[in-house]
Amino acid sequence: MAPDPITLELYRHRFSGIAEEMGITLQRTSYSPNIKERLDFSCALFDGAGRLVAQAAHIPAHLGAMPDSVAAALAVFDHWQPGDVVILNDPYFGGSHLPDITLVSPVFLSELPDANTGESDKKNPEGRNAHASPPGPQFFAASRAHHADVGGMSPGSLPLSTELFQEGIIIPPLKLYEGGALAESLLELILRNVRTPDERRGDLAAQRAAHAVGDRRLHELASRHGSGELLAYASHLQEYSERLTRAAIRSWPDGRYSFEDPIESVVDGRTTHAPIRVTATVSRDSITFDFSGTCPSIYGSLNAPLSVTRSACYYVVRCLVGEDVPVNAGCFAPVLVDAPAGCLVNARPPAAVAGGNVETSQRITDAVFGALAQALPERVAAAGQGTMNNCTMGGEYADGSPWTYYETLGGGMGAHPQGNGFSGAHVHMSNTLNTPVEALEMAYPLRLTRYHLREGSGGRGRHRGGEGIVREYEILRPTTATILSERRAIAPWGLAGGAPAAPGRNLLIDTDGSEEELSSKVTRRLQPGQRLRIETPGGGGWGAGDGSEKDGR
Amino acid sequence: MPTTLVGIDVGGTFTDFALLRDGQLLAHKEATTPADQSQAILAGLSHLGVVTAAGGEAAVDAELVHGTTIATNALLERRGARTALLTTAGFADVIEIGRQNRPHLYALHQSRPHPLVPPDLRFEAAERLDFQGNVLTGLDEEALAGTASEIAAAAPQSLAVCFLHSFRNPHHERRAAQIVREACPRLAISLSSDILPEYREYERTATTVINAYLLPLVGSYLDHLTEALAEAAGRPAHNTGRQRGRVPIRVMQSNGGAIGAAQAASEPARLVLSGPAGGVVGAFRLAQLAGAADAQHGAAGSSTSQTATQVSRQGPRIITFDMGGTSTDVALCPGRIPRTTESEVAGLPLRLPIIDIHTVGAGGGSLARVDAGGGLRVGPESAGAVPGPVCYARGGQQPTVTDANLVLGRLDASQFLGGRGAMALDLAAAEASLADLGAALGGLSSHEAALGVVRVANARMERALRRVSVERGHDPRTFTLVPFGGAGPLHACDLADALGIPRILLPPSPGVLSALGLLIADVVHESSRALLLEASSLVDDPAPLQESAAALERRVKAVLAAEGVHAPALDASLDLRYRGQSYELSVPLALPAPSPAQASHAVQRAIEAFHAAHEARYGYAMLSETVESVAVRLRATGSGAQLNLPQEPLGPPDPDAARVTAKPVWFGPDGPTTTSCYDRVRLRPGHRFEGPAIVFQFDTTTVVGPGWSASIDERHNLLLARAGG
Asked: Mind listing the pLDDT tens digit for each residue in B637-667?
């Protein structure tokens, strides 16, 4: 049946409306600040074959990341019943990094106690064959949320680890609910392995509540329009997105474009470069990203499972194709991602991956943009800051109770052919909010001594790269600080003759005013009166010359 | 109180007037004069006989309430004052960094909305408070005196001062203002501890900067208007702020309450949503009257009477639906007018109370097209006023929602804007454009394409309505839809069907509903103070609350006294949250509470209300979690005019005398239905008819869908109810 273009547009709104409403439910009912306030979650609908139908994602790191989760659940379980919920976080089997816990639950529209049942009876005059396997679910609802802690060697579960087992509890695809009944021993096991079990219990309940909304809305649609129409238009929408994506790629010049951009690997305080190499091949209406030539997995937490690498590639394609295309399996069909097993961007167990999602994903994005800048010089921007500047601090309050605090810092966006880069913002794979100075000082034994743009850090050029940020914390009580950052040695690149940006700096300022430069990945014990200053990288410049206009700064 | 009240709503195209005198309501429209809005205002007042254009003996014997877009437009178009900012040393860029997020996730070429203060107008003062307001570093007055001469040299028109933690202790900000004023005596200065004494430095700074940015412009506009009015009325103008208040003009604030021009000019950040606020207030009041009338009916035992609105204990439960040419505003009123302090205007956060209105960029002018994937898209691009829809015959080529409605027979070429020939619509051109669209959609007829355009446009509206209802835990089936604006009544039945809304209330003049809302608006002033404490500590010792409440009471009462309101109603509320959350819920607080025991009890009840509100909004409450108070708010209200519109007893139900014609109208793909068309002016109270039907009137067209029945109530409201609903 050919789709009716009007009904197609209606279903685009209906399915994405459901995903959005699931997201709002999750945000409203969750406990983790990462979910509630930093919007580090996504909700999605899949068809019975596990192909994405609609997704509401607020940060790009989750784009197209969940199909692997549903595929993993489908690989493990071939029997589904209403009320099932599968839980997983294994980065090597459907997950990304351990704090991202994904739930997957089936939606059975045929269970509706309405006319549909009668109709299916008519089609099977023999009645149900008791020996045949029951029909599978028509849809899946799924959600992924960044939980504040999943155990492991440090609070917040984003440690400077060297193998996966240090990063927290690893959950392969398992049924947390079976037919609506909670697998209590599984939940108890998970909760015993995390630092804040009550919060985890609440966040998992919030994810399940989001699925209930998705389930209910799909049933409402099915009772109004019939489950046949829903399924047909889910697949029409996928074809529609694929057509739009292919049409966009067809307008790009065919060819092979290669680029290399390294990660800063730190072992025992020594920094070495670990290159990520990508070759993008545009061939008619499809594109392949081949990461052959990328270095092997490294000793440290910056390895990326292939699903993270795919998300980064999908993000770049979406930036270039346009936001208008509904996000579903069709968008990703023309995009092929290939990386040698065991390399930095297709890590194998038990390589540590905590930082892969937050840092390496940014470098993969830079590398892919660097390749495509050769094909689309009038579209692609220079490199942005290329890091999230993860900063985790913790210690004890005066009354002996513990505190921990995690934040990420923005920097410069790359200049682009049309103008200057944005200053002091999160780039590419992240877009989370900062914590207000006044809120931070109220809650933690920290005081900010400066928080401003880092003048001159943006790369010069016809258009200037955005400026980074300077944020300086004064320590008021003994504090353990961990910094996981990138672009401290290698500057974000410029384009078309534009200059590179200033790389970032991590500084420890002692009570006597002496400064010590820290490496990009470091854990230190700090004493009252000492100050930690993070200077984030700017964005690269675009075009030769030195634009004196101040339009973007 | 003067016997005549005039509401004046200045919009992009028209300036609408609603005049109420001796219970009679008069409506009038003038073309807006964008260069000087006061010209159209004076022309309209002169037309209505409120002032004589020639001056002379006539005095202004009316009270005027003004809804203005001047603040909004100045922000959107970045036409405000050259504004400087003075901050704590080390924090000058807070206004630019914002919350570190970027507005568009996937746009490679994006620019930050201009932060209103360029880098070279950001200045720093050496001073620092801790989070409790204690001085860590005293204000370096000598250095600041030097900075003040730099500020003077940069020649800004306005200055915002925002120091860290100043909501705890305003002294550094106040002293800094004194020092700067010595160097720049004419500079307008806005202090963050006055404008928004609440925590979160970026939001406080941005709100204060918005105020500073608007201050000179809004001030001179209101001065000019006041003088022009005084002159027209033959009275000498007094050019000082205090006396400006004597001219009886009030201005609508974003919170739905009006305030005198002088006060309005001093806090222009409160006027940013002045325009759309009038419509919600007007819709709410009319629904209240209609609901009250209906309740009387019920008491009289009239079993056939339709229930106009679901009236909760406090007020009607309505969803307002204001659909214009380029955008649509919706607001859900669950028995009260909803307010929020979480809004964003022109890319900047504005944390002052405003009516909670959700806007989508879709309206009658939204353009329809077929995209590269073969899908039908409607909007967000709009035909705007120029060229406008194809049927306006002003050069538009691409079909709009309005063209689709025309082709379907829902709009009438000869009845548009009252059918006075002022604007005949080109049906043939609209049909041709939709036939082209149909062909591009794979061989659909022009009618099928038009139905598609309307359905897709409705899908976007439906999402907006869902967002304010279902997604916030409200069941739309328990609400009445109140459509207005040029296009709202055309789409209301379709949307009500999609959401299961059982009733629709159409006020007599949907086109001047906003102006009507203005003239009946209450006089309101609100103020707030940070109160960052564990709520339970306030139960034990309510002294900090009592102290804050007393200060707020003095402040709001003084403002209302200047408006001639001496015994305002006071409503207090407390912003509460669970520890660790970063969003608050505002719950009512029973003040005044003269004794500590009463105050303590009031806090206890507010905590209970918070748990309940959290449960209702987010689906859970954490009874054992620590509750924190964040801010206390106080609102003083002087009642606005009573709206005693004339009532006419219900007459016989037969509407035949109002029937203009019957014509084919498309409601589905199977062909047109012969549909009766009525003239709204000739419909009398008591008339009843069944859908499908079309009702024409000067400023809008109402579609009564199949399955809906219509009746006219005593106040000439058109009530629609779904048959069997």
From this structure: 998 877 777 788 999 999 999 999 999 999 9
